[in-house]
Specification:
two-stranded antiparallel ribbon
Length: 125
C-alpha cells in the first residue's frame, strides 16, 4: 500500500514534533489537508479522516504511530518492533485460548462429512 499525499504530510508533521500532539492541534495545523474549521472535533469528518489515516499508516508498516488519550506521536524503529512483538504475543495467547475452547467443544480431531479430520492450526480456522 502506498501512502497518500495527506498521509505523507501527517508523517512529516509528526517528525517535527516531540512527544504527543493532540488530534485537535494536528487538525488545526493541517486544516488544509483535513478540511477542519474548528467546532465539534469528535463528530467531524476531519477527525474520522485523521483516524483512518493513522490506521492506514500503521497497517502500511513503514512508520509506527502511537495514538492514545495524550495524542498522536511517531515512534522509533525500536518502539515499533517492541510494540508489534507485544501484539504478536498477545494475539498468540488469544489464538491458543480459542483453540483450547474449540477443543473443549470436541471439534478438534473430528471427522467432517467429506472425510477430512478437522485440525485447528494458526491461520486455519
Amino acid at each position: 500500500m502506498n501512502l497518500t499525499y495527506r498521509q505523507r504530510h501527517l508523517i512529516d508533521y509528526l517528525k517535527e514534533k516531540t512527544g504527543y500532539t493532540k488530534q485537535r492541534q494536528i487538525l488545526e495545523d493541517l486544516s488544509l489537508y483535513y478540511d477542519y474549521h474548528g467546532g465539534d472535533l469528535h463528530n467531524s469528518g476531519a477527525r474520522r479522516a485523521l483516524t483512518q489515516d493513522i490506521r492506514e499508516i500503521r497497517e502500511e508498516g513503514s512508520h509506527c504511530l502511537f495514538s492514545n488519550s495524550r495524542g498522536v506521536r511517531l515512534g522509533s524503529v525500536d518502539e515499533a518492533i517492541a510494540y508489534h512483538a507485544r501484539r504478536v504475543s498477545t494475539f498468540g495467547r488469544y489464538i491458543n485460548k480459542e483453540k483450547a475452547i474449540l477443543k473443549n467443544f470436541g471439534l478438534e480431531g473430528q471427522q467432517a462429512y467429506d472425510g477430512a479430520v478437522k485440525e485447528f492450526v494458526e491461520g486455519n480456522g
